[in-house]
Write a structure and sequence with these properties.
With 388 residues, this protein is of the alpha+beta class. The protein has 2 domains: 204 residues, Ribosomal Protein S5, domain 2 (2-Layer Sandwich); 172 residues, GHMP kinase, C-terminal domain (Alpha-Beta Plaits). It contains 11 helices and 13 strands. 48% of the residues are buried. It binds alpha-D-galactopyranose.
C-alpha cells in the first residue's frame, strides 16, 4: 500500500468534505502472455500488480457528484441525469461510464464525492483506466449496497471503457485488476470467463518492466481496427466452419484454407491470434515444470508476432526487445498490453541491475527520451483498505 497517497487522500477529504472516506485500492496489471486475444475468446495470463489507483469515496448531499484527481490537479462535477462523454476532461469518462452502466442496469445511484490518485504510471499500458473503473464500481457497490458480484462489476467496468472511453477492449484488464492474487498469475479463459490461479514463482528470475515512455492513448490507436480485422477474418472462416465462434479457437490449418481469399493483412492478423493462443498453452505447460527458458522463448516469439503480423509494436519497443538478445541473463522480452508504446516485459535473472542500466542508456541515445524501469509483484485485486 502507498501510505503517502492514502494519507493525502484522507487529508483532502477532511479539508474538502470534513469526513473520512471509504478508501479503495485497485491495481494495474501485467500480462505474461496472451496479447490481443482476450477479445478473440483466447486464453491470457495476466496478474494484478503492486501499483494501484487509490480512491476515497463518500455519499454526498449535493446535486452533483464531485470528482477530484490529485495527480492531474483537476476536478469536475457530474450530473447523473445528464451523463455525457467529456472531450475536455477525458479522465471523468471512466467514472461517468461506470455510473451509466449501473443506471442502465436499473440502479439508482445517489451523488458521491471522489478523491483519487495513484502510482500506476499513466499511458504505460498497465491499465490505470481499468483500475479506476474497478475502484469506482467497487466503491459504489459498497456505499449504496447494490449487491453486485465481482463478475458483474468487471463487466460494468469493461462497458465503461467501450461506451465512454471508446476502446473496444477485451475483458483481461478489468478481470486481472479485480481478481488478482498475490504471487499468482491468472489463467483466464476469455470465452467462458473460467479461470485458475497459477503460482508465479520464478526462482532465480524476475519480471521487470521497461517503459518506453512513448506517449500513446489506446483510443487513438488502431486497436479497434485490429478487433474489426479479426471479426472479418473469423467471418470468412465461419463460412466453412460455422461452429467456430471465436477466432482463437480456429486452427492454423483451417486458416490456411482461406489464404488466397483473405487480404494478406487480415490473414496475418488471424495467424498471430491463432499462434498466440498456442503459445499461451505452451507457456502454461512450461510454467508447471518451471521451464523458464521455454517461457522466455515464447515471450520473444510473441513479440515477433506482435511486431510483424499484428503490427502493434513501435520502434522504441522493438529497440528495447532487440537489445535484450545480447544478454544471457535475459531469457525473454516482449511488448506488453495494447502496444504502440508502453512497456516491455522482461524475464531476467535477479540482481541484473547493471544490465538494465545498460539497456536504458543505449535506449536514451537512440530514442531521445529516457526509459523507466519498474519491478512489480503479482498482487491482490481491487479491495477496501482498512486505514484505522
Ligand atoms: C488492452 C486492452 C485489453 C487487451 C490488451 C492486449 O490492454 O484493454 O483488453 O486486448 O490491450 O492484449
Amino acid at each position: 500500500m502507498n501510505k503517502e497517497i492514502t494519507q493525502k487522500i484522507q487529508e483532502v477529504f477532511k479539508s474538502e468534505f470534513n469526513e473520512s472516506p471509504l478508501v479503495i485500492a485497485s491495481p494495474g496489471r501485467i500480462n505474461l502472455i496472451g496479447e490481443h486475444i482476450d477479445y478473440n475468446g483466447g486464453l491470457v495470463m495476466p496478474a494484478a500488480i503492486d501499483k494501484c489507483i487509490y480512491a476515497g469515496f463518500s455519499k454526498s448531499g449535493s446535486k452533483k457528484s464531485r470528482l477530484i484527481s490529485l495527480d492531474l490537479k483537476d476536478e469536475a462535477r457530474i450530473d447523473h441525469n445528464k451523463l455525457a462523454i467529456s472531450t475536455t476532461q477525458t479522465w471523468t469518462n471512466y467514472i461517468s461510464g461506470v455510473v451509466d452502466g449501473l443506471q442502465r442496469r436499473g440502479f439508482e445511484i445517489p451523488y458521491f464525492n471522489l478523491v483519487f490518485a495513484g502510482d500506476i504510471p499513466l499511458g504505460a499500458g498497465l491499465s490505470s483506466s481499468a483500475a479506476l473503473e474497478n475502484a469506482v464500481v467497487y466503491a459504489l457497490n459498497e456505499l449504496f449496497e447494490l449487491g453486485l458480484s465481482k463478475g458483474d462489476m468487471i463487466l460494468i467496468s469493461q462497458e465503461a471503457e467501450h461506451k465512454f472511453a471508446g476502446v473496444q477492449c477485451g475483458i483481461m484488464d478489468q478481470f486481472a485488476s479485480m481478481m488478482g492474487k498475490e504471487d499468482h498469475v491468472l489463467m483466464l479463459n476469455c470465452n467462458s470467463l473460467n479461470f485458475e490461479y497459477l503460482p508465479l514463482e520464478l526462482d532465480e528470475y524476475e519480471l521487470v518492466l521497461i517503459n518506453t515512455n512513448v506517449d500513446h492513448v489506446l483510443s487513438d490507436s488502431p486497436y479497434n481496427e485490429r478487433k474489426q480485422q479479426c471479426i472479418d477474418g473469423l467471418s470468412m472462416i465461419q463460412n466453412e466452419y460455422p461452429t467456430i465462434k471465436q477466432l482463437a479457437h480456429a486452427s492454423i490449418d483451417q486458416l490456411k484454407e482461406f489464404k488466397d481469399e483473405l487480404l494478406p493483412v487480415i490473414y496475418n492478423r488471424c495467424r498471430f491470434v491463432i499462434e498466440e493462443m498456442a503459445r499461451v498453452r505452451s507457456a502454461k505447460a512450461a510454467s508447471k515444470i518451471k521451464d523458464w527458458k521455454a517461457i522466455g522463448e515464447l515471450l520473444y516469439a510473441s513479440h515477433r508476432g506482435l511486431q510483424h503480423l499484428y503490427e502493434v509494436s513501435c520502434p522504441e519497443l522493438d529497440s528495447l526487445v532487440d537489445q535484450t538478445h545480447e544478454y544471457d541473463e535475459i531469457l525473454g522480452s516482449r511488448m506488453m498490453g495494447g502496444g504502440f508504446g508502453g512497456c516491455t516485459l522482461n524475464l531476467i535473472k535477479k540482481d541484473s541491475n547493471h544490465i538494465l542500466d545498460k539497456i536504458v542508456k543505449t535506449y536514451a541515445k537512440h530514442a531521445n527520451i529516457p526509459a523507466s524501469i519498474y519491478k512489480v509483484r503479482a498482487s491482490n485485486g481491487t479491495k477496501i483498505l482498512d486505514l484505522n
